[in-house]
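input
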Amino acid sequence: MRFYALLLGVLVGTSVCAETVVDAEKLRTYGAENPTLIYVFTSPACPHCAAYHAEILPIIKKQFSDTGLAQIKIVDMVGDKRSMKVAQLARCMTDSQYTKFMETVYQKQSDWAYGDADTYEEKIISYATDAGLNAKSQKACLDNEKLADKIIDQRNNLAKMYRIQAMPTTVVVRGIKSKMFLGADENLIPELEKVVKK
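output
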């Protein structure tokens, strides 16, 4: 297992669920392949990312990926052991499970991200259970080192490529051109529209 700024957890290759087969090594993606790609760089432990997930992500999904204007990919900017475990479990979930799980993760961020070091994992696992991920899949996700390395590689490569220094950050890519947007305020949506619909 590799070590970074902090010891990071481990992940899975594929997870089979009743709803669909999940390729856990791929970024969470919304919408079909598209010339316009929107990368969303977030971390489960980032307070501003919680606002982004609740207020911004549903809108950009509705306006851009659901309408075929762009494809959206979520980049897990994990930087600590706790966030890695969230990312591990999230990667193994179907879209519906992921949505429910991440809603709880962000709503209860202070409980697991900044709470007791002895109980945070138990809390994260309980959120995954409530979202519909069974115990066998949870263990597989948390025990697979190859996927942990994959998440870190994706984080490092994309963060370097687009020079990400803060979260949340949204990057719109079209061909060789890209435009970066910082934060989660109300002005983000109209600014994204100008670029995506150009």
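quick obs: Residues 1-20 have pLDDT under 50 and may be disordered.
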